[in-house]
Amino acid sequence: MEKIVSTVIHLCVGSTNPVKINAAKQAFEAVFPAYSIHCNGMNAPSGVSDQPMTEAETRLGAKNRVQYCFQQDTQKSADYFVAMEGGVDKFEEGVMTFAYVAILPSNGILSTGRSANLPLPNKIFKRLQGNEELGDVMDDIFHTTNIKQQGGAIGLLTNNSATRESIYIQALILALAPILHPEHYSA
C-alpha cells in the first residue's frame, strides 16, 4: 500500500555539500514523518575562517549561513532554513571537533544546537593551527579524497561507527525541540 503524504516541508540548507543536505533531510524526515521533505542546498557564506578554531566562531558560522539563506529567500518559498558549521576548539579534556547547527523557521525565530565532541589527535590540531582545514588534513593522513563530503573525520576516527552526517542529524533533531514545543521554551 502506498503511503499518502499529507504535506510538504521545504528546506533550504546553507551548503551544497551533499552530506549536509542529506543530514537536514533525514533529520526533518525523522521529526516530521507524515510530511514529504523537499531539500535544496545553497552556497551560503559563513563569514568565518574556513576552519573555525573556537566554539564561538563555529556557532557564528552556522548562524551566518542560516541568516544568509533566510535573507536570500525573497519568494518566501522555504519553510525552514538550516545550516551546519564544523569547528575545533581546545577544552579541558583536550582538542575536540564538533559542529554547530542553526535552524530558522520562516517565522524568523532561530534555534541553534551543538553536536557531541570528537577528540582529535594533537598532531592534527597542530596542522589546523597552521591554517589547514580538517578535511584536507584527514585526507592526507588517511589517504582519502574529499572526506568532508563523506564520513568526515568522525567516520575515519570511529571506523564509521559515527559519521559527519549522523552527528549533524542528531544535533538538528535536538535543535528542533524548541520549534516543536515553543510553549515550553518561551520566557
TrEMBL record:
SUPFAM superfamilies: ITPase-like (SSF52972). Keywords: Hydrolase, Magnesium, Manganese, Metal-binding, Nucleotide metabolism, Nucleotide-binding. Substrate binds at residues 15-20. InterPro entries: ITPase-like_fam, Non_canon_purine_NTPase, NTPase/PRRC1, YjjX_NTPase. The keyword Cell wall biogenesis/degradation does not apply. Its EC number is 3.6.1.73. Phosphatase that hydrolyzes non-canonical purine nucleotides such as XTP and ITP to their respective diphosphate derivatives. Probably excludes non-canonical purines from DNA/RNA precursor pool, thus preventing their incorporation into DNA/RNA and avoiding chromosomal lesions. Homodimer. PANTHER family: NON-CANONICAL PURINE NTP PHOSPHATASE_PRRC1 DOMAIN-CONTAINING PROTEIN, PTHR34699. This is Inosine/xanthosine triphosphatase. It comes from Marinomonas colpomeniae. The lineage of its organism: Bacteria, Pseudomonadati, Pseudomonadota, Gammaproteobacteria, Oceanospirillales.
